[in-house]
Amino acid sequence: MSNTTSIPDLSQALTLLRAGELVGIPTETVYGLAADASQPAAVAKIFAAKGRPNDHPVIVHIAGVEQLTDWAQNIPDSAYQLAEAFWPGPLTLILERQAHVSDSVTGGQNTVGLRAPAHPITHELLRQFGGGLAAPSANQFGHVSPTTAEHVRHEFTDDQLKLILDGGACHVGVESTIVSLVGGVAKLLRPGGISRAAIETVLGTAIEHHTDQASAQQRVSGLLDSHYAPRTPLLLGSLSALLQVASREHSNGKKVVLLTQEENTTIAYPQHKMPNNPTAYAQEIYATLRRLDQEQFDLLLLETPPQGAEWLAIHDRINRAAQQKLN
Ligand code: TXA
Ligand code: MG
């Protein structure tokens, strides 16, 4: 986060939030669709605007660690260790909820997800707001997450979303890492902006990797393939597999585009070079998928990026975005 970001006047955002309206907020990961977490009717507007199933829990965003006890109880020491190490930042902690936290936020579970985002505008908004802001990513359910204010504007009508705070392009570009600490046992539920290794270093122990509940539900209901997804079919695979598909489809008159790690000089159809550095790749992937989605291609062909710990969150997202995987 650059410390030169100037903070706009936040009074309109605060007024809307207190009146139970939605506001688009920048975070370092992706933009959020925020509502006052203490007003169930306001949180319900998030689900309606996104077309999201009501039983999916939403993350409550707070200014900092001093607000943990407003929302969670029986907080293990490990939560304070992680919050002190990584907040404000791209880490969400799942903890036992306080009794007052509404079912609209928790999806009816006895846990709550808490995160202190690092973007200076939203950090200041949260500080002035004082409470918590329930905020999922500001996209239609299943669609690509937004990393600019303009992306958010494309997802909702002016009636649904009266104000978007423009904080520029998101620096991290993929969602926060989610760690459950319920019962004092650390579990990685979603890889993201903070690496598993960094978390393990702070905790001094290895953590298990579980798939999160929402993705388990998506698997069960067959919706997995539509998560984080562009509208144009996306195929993920090795370069050799994609080159075969691309030349076949191209000669059938289809408009294809190849997204590769290296420029390929021999092909006759459009290509886009993806970054070789995982930080830059994460910053660009959602914006790239959105842009190509608007260019009337029939098929997006994405080369599987390298393996390795720094690529974990990227693999997680593009695997869910892809309609099909080739080897
Ligand atoms: O980076 C982020 O986390 C972004 C920005 C806006 O903060 N937010 C985000 O929210 O990605 P969303 O709603 O798109 O994803 C939140 C994930 C979901 O998979 C949800 O199931 C999980 O967090 N989650 C939230 N509360 C939970 C809880 N109490 N227990 C288990 N999972 C929870
Ligand atoms: Mg999301």
From TrEMBL:
Substrates-to-products reaction catalysed: L-threonine + hydrogencarbonate + ATP = L-threonylcarbamoyladenylate + diphosphate + H2O
Enzyme class at the top of the EC tree: transferase
Residues of the YrdC-like domain: 7-194
EC number: 2.7.7.87
Record bears the keyword Nucleotidyltransferase: yes
Pfam families: Sua5_C, Sua5_yciO_yrdC
Signal sequence range: none
UniProt cross-references to InterPro entries, sorted A to Z: DHBP_synth_RibB-like_a/b_dom (IPR017945), Sua5-like_dom (IPR006070), Sua5/YwlC_C (IPR038385), Sua5_C (IPR005145), T(6)A37_SUA5 (IPR010923), TC-AMP_synthase_SUA5 (IPR050156)
Keyword line: ATP-binding, Cytoplasm, Nucleotide-binding, Nucleotidyltransferase, Transferase, tRNA processing
Nucleotidyltransferase found in the keyword field: yes
Subcellular location, record wording: Cytoplasm
PANTHER family in alphabetical order: SUA5, THREONYLCARBAMOYL-AMP SYNTHASE
Recorded family membership: Belongs to the SUA5 family.
UniProt function note: Required for the formation of a threonylcarbamoyl group on adenosine at position 37 (t(6)A37) in tRNAs that read codons beginning with adenine.
Name listed for the protein in its UniProt record: Threonylcarbamoyl-AMP synthase
Organism the protein comes from: Deefgea tanakiae
Lineage, highest ranks first: Bacteria, Pseudomonadati, Pseudomonadota, Betaproteobacteria, Neisseriales
